[in-house]
TrEMBL record:
Full protein name: dTDP-4-dehydrorhamnose reductase
GO cellular component, one term: cytosol
Pfam families: RmlD_sub_bind
Reaction catalysis annotation: dTDP-beta-L-rhamnose + NADP(+) = dTDP-4-dehydro-beta-L-rhamnose + NADPH + H(+)
Pathway assigned to this chain's UniProt record: Carbohydrate biosynthesis; dTDP-L-rhamnose biosynthesis
NCBIfam families given in the database record: rmlD
Organism: Anditalea andensis
């Protein structure tokens, strides 16, 4: 059980993870949460951060606010820096003794590994988004010990924009689709990540530091798309391609599977395989 009196602020509450946490908090009947979308709280605006945190005085801040447009970040690195780095500076400046649970990404790695990345592995992002996310992590680690950084990957669910929803949308207008098969990682259902965050809050004292969380298993984007179409009953010709055949402004890591051993031990959670979670997510989304 989470202490009912614990005051929890969720930033970026209008995004896919923020909305998922909100919907889960309603199921769990948690009254003492404050959900701030970017209109209610712009984390790049120091004054707003000071006033909001000053008025609410949270004991936990779950930072779901981020600049997540991977391609746009290449031509707008300052925009990405403002949210993903300066935003953290602002939050930590007024957080006081609050625990900061910050969400980060598999894109802090370069993808040259052949084995699942551990929390202690060296970061070396290959794009502007990943670079700002890495800088945000480092800043947070430098400023306060009272943090939990959760690196996750390939988030999807019913809320906001994501690959699953893009594929379902494209299936309505296209008879065939090419999807990259040489970028390998693990899709993560926002419902599972939100639950893991609730588990962290329920434990008395989860050790501070970095944790990796994704669903279990390994997939390419092609595999993921294939499973989406299979499970959703969409009849579309899917063609596996190399990354070079789908040029994008940002380079993506070829391998970004995360090792989840540490978080599974810390919160005693069995993590579902990505295929099982995709089935759950699609059932919920398409009902
Ligand atoms: N999406 C993914 O595949 C993955 C995401 N992550 C990380 O998980 C976290 C959550 O991501 P996700 O929910 O998918 O992202 P979304 O893009 O769905 O949500 C991010 C939210 O942050 C808000 N935001 C942007 N700028 C600001 C700002 N200046 N102040 C306050 N809020 C702001 C956005 O609001 P608005 O739309 O109004 O600008 C949006 O609602 C992020 O840290 C992301 O880096 C990690 C791995 C994979
Ligand atoms: C739409 C589409 C994408 N793709 C490719 C492009 C890309 O390599 C891959 C995924 O595309 P997307 O642009 O949806 O996803 P992308 O923005 O790369 O997703 C990333 O977002 C950030 C925020 C993260 O932190 C990462 O973990 C990861 O989830 O699929 C195709 O091959 N065919 C298609 O039709």
């Amino acid at each position: 059980m989470i202490d009912q009196n614990l005051k929890i602020l969720v930033t970026g509450a209008g995004g896919q993870l923020g909305q998922e946490i909100k919907s889960l908090s309603e199921v769990y009947n948690r009254p003492n949460w404050s959900f701030a979308d970017s209109k209610a709280l712009d984390i790049t605006d120091e004054r707003q951060v000071k006033d909001y945190i000053g008025a609410y005085t949270p004991e936990v801040i779950i930072n779901c606010a981020a600049y997540t447009a991977v391609d746009a970040a290449e031509s707008d690195p300052n925009g990405a820096f403002a949210v993903n780095v300066s935003g953290i500076q602002n939050l930590t400046a007024y957080a006081g003794k609050a625990l900061i649970i910050h969400i980060s990404t598999d894109f802090v790695f370069d993808g040259n590994s052949f084995v699942a990345y551990k929390e202690t592995d060296e970061t070396h992002p290959i794009g502007a988004y990943g670079k700002t996310k890495m800088e945000g992590e480092k800043l947070l680690q430098h400023i306060t010990d009272n943090h939990i950084i959760i690196r996750t990957s390939w988030l999807y669910g019913s809320f906001g924009k994501n690959f699953m929803k893009t594929m379902l949308h494209l299936a309505d207008s296209r008879s065939e689709l090419s999807v990259v098969a040489d970028q390998v990682g693990t899709p993560t259902y926002t419902g599972d990540l939100a639950l893991a965050i609730i588990r962290i809050l329920e434990q008395d004292q989860v050790e501070r530091g970095i944790y990796h969380f994704s669903n279990e298993g390994v997939a390419s984007w092609y595999d993921f798309a294939h499973a989406i179409f299979d499970m959703a009953g969409k009849n579309i010709k899917l063609i596996p391609i190399k990354s070079e055949a789908y040029p994008t402004p940002a380079k993506r890591p070829h391998f970004s599977v995360l090792d989840k051993t540490k978080i599974k031990k810390a919160i005693h959670m069995e993590i579902p395989h990505w295929r099982d979670s995709l089935e759950v997510a699609l059932k919920k989304h398409l009902r």
